[in-house]
Amino acid sequence: MARIETIGDVVDWGLCVGCGGCFHACDRQAVELVHIPQTGIRPRFTGDCENCTRCLDICPGHRIELNGSATGEAGPVLEIWQGHASDPEVRYKGSSGGVLSALSLYCLEQGGMGQVLHSAMDPTEPWKNRTVASRSRTEILARSGSRYAPSSPCDGLRTVEESAAPSVFIGKPCDTAAVAMLRRDNPDLDRKLGLVLSFFCAGTPSTDGTLTLAGALGFETQKIREVRYRGEGWPGDFKILAGDGSSASLSYMDSWSRLTKYRPFRCNLCPDGLGATADISCGDAWHAYEGGGQAGTSLVLVRTELGRVVLRKAMEAGYVTLAPSSEGAVLRAQAGLVDRKRNVFGRLLAMRMMAIPAPRFPGFGLFRCWAQLSLARRARSVVGTLRRLVRRRAWKKNGLLEPNAG
After folding, report:
1. Which pTM does this prediction carry?
2. At residue 8, what are phi and psi to the nearest 5 degrees?
3. At what angle do helices 99-109 and 305-316 cross, to 10 degrees?
4. In 10 A of CB 291, how many CB atoms?
5. How far apart are CA 280 and CA 303, in angstroms?
6. Within a domain: residue 320?
7. Residue 357 belongs to some domain of the structure
8. How far apart are CA 87 and CA 318, in angstroms?
9. How many domains does the chain have?
10. Coil vs helix vs strand at 385
């Protein structure tokens, strides 16, 4: 059976999540991050770095370990809340209830933190993302909203280490998993991370997904001035704005259903759509959604004592308006992410049956989740994956590098 032995193997077998963790961890500066429109952001190695094994210890594409009590399907949770940013503008600009933006503002304005490291639209190539450090309300609001395109926020962690004050980090669940591993052996980074936030994630479409949607709306790449994926209402529209002032849009539901076709296969193997390795994770309270024109509402999962303290202080200071919720609400609101987690064990089993290297997820209780499915659905999770792997010729390196093939 083929094995993952180096960081280069993670990339070649299509398991890289594009977090940028190896870029930050490499003290030899032998990693360059490159943008591949069909796939995502991936590392390029120089010298003998491709054969290095040290970065495997911090690579979420290879392994994510969940510590703590994870008896429920939502992972380790201390508290569950439902609500929104108290400020109407923050709530409107955000993807659902604007809670992550509101917490970021609290940390900057009253929590003693110096910056928020996160991903935002690249102004020079608006269909891409770049890592930014926001330090004001103006920057937080201008950069709010979901970004359904590749991002690598761990590539900016050096600014966290060098910051005079603690920083907030916001990333996808795989990004926060990388941060959790990076900080274990890096006291400077650990000390400077004031709060780690994540959002619910169903996968990251490649840049080709965005450009295909833009083309369907009649916009050539060189004419695009801004790309909005959602926000400005709940859930908000996918919108392209051109330099000449023209614009066009698609509904969130329509655009997301098209973008999902451009997710890497690796996203189908992820059991952590709910951000289990962050201090706090947030996402849409879809079970409370009643239609367009409704103000956004978020679910808030508090996962650490630090997260609990910060959230309570933000509530007391009036930044967020929340009411207690439950794991049952999370499972109803995010049924798709829960279903994906239940199927992951079968998908990984199919990979091992074909002697294909698979990522490891100790602590996630994947067999227990898979066992909750009916016998027929368990069989489909294995057989369906086997068919995809054969179609991709995935027993060879590079077979899993293309976007989702159904």
Report:
1. 0.96
2. -65, -35
3. 80
4. 6
5. 6
6. yes
7. no
8. 9
9. 1
10. helix
